Backbone:
C-alpha cells in the first residue's frame, strides 16, 4: 500500500537514525555526526556515517545511502511495507487505515492464519505420541532442539482428527477448507483431514506466521511422498521459501544463503550451523523466489542433489534466472557428489564437508556453458554451430543490456578458447575459465613438442598464402612425408578446416588408410587417390607445392624440420580461418545493430589479422 508522506515523516521524527543503526553498528559521535564500521562491507577504518539532523546514513565503502526505512530493509531483508510496519510499532503509531475491502481481506487472512497456527501446535503435540514418526526424525539425525525449533509435528492417520479438534475449538468447516487443512468431498460427505500419517513441516511467511504445511508420508504405498498445502488466500507456494523468516538475519550477517531442494536438507544444514538456508516448496524455483533470495544476498548458492534430477533442476533455474539478471546479482551452484543431498553431506562428512563444497561453488555463466556443452557431441561443424547458436540464444534472454553485453563477451571468449582444440578429445578442459597461450597450443595439437623458434619464424615467413591455398600445401606435406606427420599429428590433420569438398574427401581417404595400417608411401598414396579425386586437384597440389617451396613439401627435407614447419602452417591456418569467420560475424553484427561494442569487436579482429600478416611479411 502507499503510505501518506506525513505518516512516514512522523516515524522518522520519533525514531532517530542513530538509534536504529546503533543496534547493528557501534557508533561514535564526531561533531554533529556518528561514525562506525560499515555493516555492508568488512573494513578496519570507519567509513560509515549517520546524521540524525538530516535523517540519513551514508556508507562511503559501498555508496549505500538512505533513511531508517532503507537501513531496516537493507539489513533485515524486509519489504518497504514490512519496514514501515516494524518502525511504526516502535514509534507507537497506529498504521494508517486501509480501505474497507483491504480491511476485510486482512481480517479474513488473519482468521486463516490463526487456525493454521493452532493446527501447527496440534501436529507438534501429536509427534510425541507417535513413535514411528519420532523415530523417523531421529534416524535422520535430528535432535529435540532442532525439532522444536522448526515446529515439526505429525498428522495421524485418522481421517477426521484435526478437523474434529479445530471445529471443537470453534472453527467453521468452510474456513478449514479455505485454509487447506480439510477437504470437503463433492458428494456431500463430511469433510476430512488433508494430511494423514505424515511428518509435518510448518511453512511460514516472511513475518514468521504459519501459512501452510508440507507433509512427508511415512507409508511407502501412497501416491505422493511429499504433499504441500494447496493455494489459499495466504499461501502461494511460488512466492514463498521454506525457512525464509529464520534465514533472513543470518543471511545478512554472513552475506550468504544456501538454497536446497527440500525441507530435510534445510533442517539438516541448520543443525550443522548453516542457519541461512532455504528451499522452494517442491517445485522448480520461480522468479518471485529468486527476487526473495536477492533481497537476502547478491549471489545465493544453489545446493542441489548429486544426481541427474539435481542437474536438471540446476538447468531449470538457469532458464528462470537469465531474463531477470541485474547488475550485481546472480547465482552460484554447488553440485553434490552423485547420490548425496546436503543432509547426507553434513551427517556423513560434518560441517567441513559442506564448507569445502561451498568453496567450489560455480557461477551461473559456468553452469550455462556446461549445460549447452553436454546436450550433444560436437564432432561435426553443424553441431558446433548449433552449440554456438544455443549459447547466443540463452544470452539473448537477458533483458538488462549491460549484463547481456558482458555475458556475450564471456561466451565469445569461451568459444574462442574452446574451439582451438578438439572438444571430443579433451572434454575435461571445457569448463576452464582461462588458458595460457601454451595451453592453447597443447590443446589444439594434443601432443608433441613445440617447434624451435627459428623453425617457427621460417615457416611463418613462407606461409603468407591465401586461405584456400594453405590446405593444398598441408596435404602436399602429408603426401610427401606421411609417416613423419601422421605418426604424431594425425589428430591435428583431422581437425584442419577444409572448405573444398574434394580436398576434404582426400584428407579423409589418407586418414582412413593411416588408421587401417595400409602403406603410406608417397607414390602409393597418389596412385590410390587418382581414382577418388580429379586429376586437376592433384595437379594443383603439385603446382602450389613447387611454387611456394616450403620445406615440408620437399621430399628430401629432414624429419624434425618437416614436422615443425608443417605444424606451424597448420596452426597458422587454424588461427586465420577462425579470425576470418569471426570477422564475418562481427561485420554482420555491426551492420545489424550499429552498436559501438560491435564496431570495437570488428576493429579488434581486423587488427589481429593485420598483426599476423605483418609478422608473416617480416
Residues:
Amino acid at each position: 500500500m502507499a503510505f501518506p508522506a506525513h505518516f512516514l515523516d512522523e516515524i522518522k521524527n520519533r525514531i532517530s537514525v542513530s538509534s536504529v543503526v546503533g543496534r547493528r553498528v557501534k557508533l561514535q559521535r564526531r561533531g554533529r555526526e556518528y561514525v562506525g564500521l560499515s555493516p555492508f562491507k568488512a573494513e578496519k577504518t570507519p567509513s560509515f556515517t549517520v546524521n540524525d539532523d538530516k535523517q540519513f546514513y551514508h556508507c562511503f565503502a559501498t555508496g549505500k545511502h538512505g533513511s531508517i526505512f532503507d537501513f531496516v530493509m537493507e539489513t533485515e531483508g524486509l519489504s518497504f511495507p514490512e519496514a514501515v510496519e516494524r518502525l511504526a510499532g516502535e514509534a507507537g503509531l497506529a498504521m494508517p487505515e486501509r480501505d474497507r475491502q483491504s480491511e476485510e481481506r486482512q481480517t479474513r487472512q488473519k482468521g486463516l492464519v490463526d487456525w493454521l497456527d493452532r493446527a501447527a501446535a496440534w501436529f507438534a503435540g501429536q509427534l510425541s505420541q507417535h513413535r514411528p514418526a519420532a523415530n523417523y526424525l531421529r534416524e535422520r539425525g535430528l535432535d529435540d532442539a532442532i525439532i522444536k525449533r522448526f515446529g515439526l509435528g505429525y498428522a495421524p492417520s485418522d481421517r477426521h482428527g484435526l478437523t474434529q479438534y479445530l471445529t471443537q475449538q470453534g472453527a467453521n468447516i468452510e474456513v478449514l477448507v479455505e485454509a487447506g487443512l480439510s477437504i470437503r468431498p463433492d458428494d456431500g460427505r463430511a469433510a476430512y483431514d488433508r494430511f494423514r500419517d505424515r511428518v509435518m513441516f510448518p511453512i511460514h511467511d516472511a513475518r514468521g506466521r504459519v501459512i501452510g504445511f508440507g507433509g512427508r508420508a511415512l507409508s511407502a504405498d501412497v501416491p505422493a511422498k511429499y504433499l504441500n498445502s494447496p493455494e489459499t488466500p495466504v499461501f502461494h507456494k511460488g512466492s514463498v521459501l521454506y525457512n525464509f523468516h529464520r534465514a533472513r538475519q543470518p543471511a545478512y550477517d554472513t552475506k550468504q544463503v544456501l538454497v536446497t531442494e527440500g525441507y530435510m536438507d534445510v533442517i539438516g544444514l541448520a543443525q550443522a550451523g548453516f542457519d541461512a538456508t532455504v528451499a522452494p516448496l517442491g517445485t522448480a524455483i520461480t522468479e518471485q523466489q529468486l527476487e526473495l533470495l536477492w533481497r537476502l544476498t547478491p549471489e545465493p548458492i544453489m545446493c542441489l542433489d548429486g544426481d541427474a534430477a539435481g542437474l536438471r533442476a540446476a538447468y531449470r533455474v538457469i532458464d528462470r534466472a537469465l531474463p531477470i539478471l541485474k547488475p550485481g546479482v546472480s547465482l552460484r551452484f554447488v553440485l553434490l557428489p552423485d547420490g548425496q543431498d546436503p543432509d547426507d553431506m553434513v551427517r556423513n562428512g560434518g560441517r567441513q564437508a559442506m564448507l569445502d563444497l561451498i568453496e567450489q561453488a560455480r557461477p551461473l555463466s559456468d553452469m550455462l556453458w556446461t549445460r549447452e556443452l553436454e546436450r550433444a557431441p560436437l564432432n561435426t561443424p553443424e553441431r558446433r554451430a548449433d552449440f554456438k547458436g544455443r549459447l547466443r540464444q540463452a544470452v539473448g534472454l537477458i533483458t538488462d543490456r549491460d549484463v547481456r553485453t558482458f555475458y556475450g563477451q564471456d561466451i565469445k571468449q569461451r568459444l574462442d578458447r574452446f574451439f582451438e582444440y578438439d572438444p571430443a578429445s579433451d572434454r575435461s578442459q571445457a569448463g576452464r575459465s582461462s588458458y595460457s597461450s601454451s595451453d592453447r597450443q597443447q590443446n589444439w595439437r594434443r601432443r608433441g613438442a613445440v617447434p624451435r623458434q627459428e623453425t617457427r619464424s621460417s615457416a611463418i615467413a613462407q606461409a603468407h598464402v591465401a586461405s584456400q591455398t594453405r590446405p593444398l600445401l598441408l596435404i602436399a606435406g602429408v603426401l610427401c612425408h606421411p609417416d613423419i606427420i601422421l605418426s604424431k599429428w594425425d589428430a591435428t590433420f583431422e581437425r584442419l578446416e577444409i572448405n573444398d569438398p574434394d580436398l576434404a574427401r582426400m584428407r579423409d581417404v589418407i586418414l582412413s588408410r593411416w588408421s587401417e595400417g595400409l602403406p603410406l608411401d608417397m607414390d602409393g598414396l597418389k596412385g590410390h587417390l587418382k581414382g577418388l579425386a580429379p586429376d586437376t586437384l592433384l595437379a594443383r597440389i603439385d603446382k602450389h607445392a613447387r611454387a611456394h617451396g616450403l620445406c615440408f613439401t620437399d621430399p628430401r627435407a629432414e624429419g624434425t624440420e618437416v614436422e615443425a614447419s608443417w605444424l606451424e602452417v597448420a596452426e597458422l591456418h587454424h588461427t586465420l580461418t577462425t579470425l576470418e569467420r569471426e570477422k564475418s560475424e562481427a561485420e554482420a553484427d555491426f551492420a545489424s545493430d550499429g552498436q559501438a561494442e560491435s564496431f570495437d569487436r570488428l576493429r579488434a579482429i581486423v587488427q589481429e589479422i593485420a598483426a599476423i600478416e605483418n609478422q608473416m611479411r617480416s
